[in-house]
Amino acid sequence: MQTKDNQNNKNFCTIYLVRHGETESNKNGYLMGSLDAPLTEEGISQAQNTAEKLKDIHFDAIFSSDLERAHTTAKILKLERDLAIQTTKALQERNYAQWEGKPIEEFRKIFKHIYEEMKQVEKAERMKFKPYEGIESDEEIVSRFIAFLREVAVAYAGKNVLVATHGGCIRTFLIHLGYFDYKNIPSGAVTNAGYVKVISDGVDFFVQEVSGVKDKVI
Question: For a surface tag, which of 105, 179, 180, 212 has the fewest beta carbons within 10 Å of its beta carbon?
Answer without folding.
Answer: 105
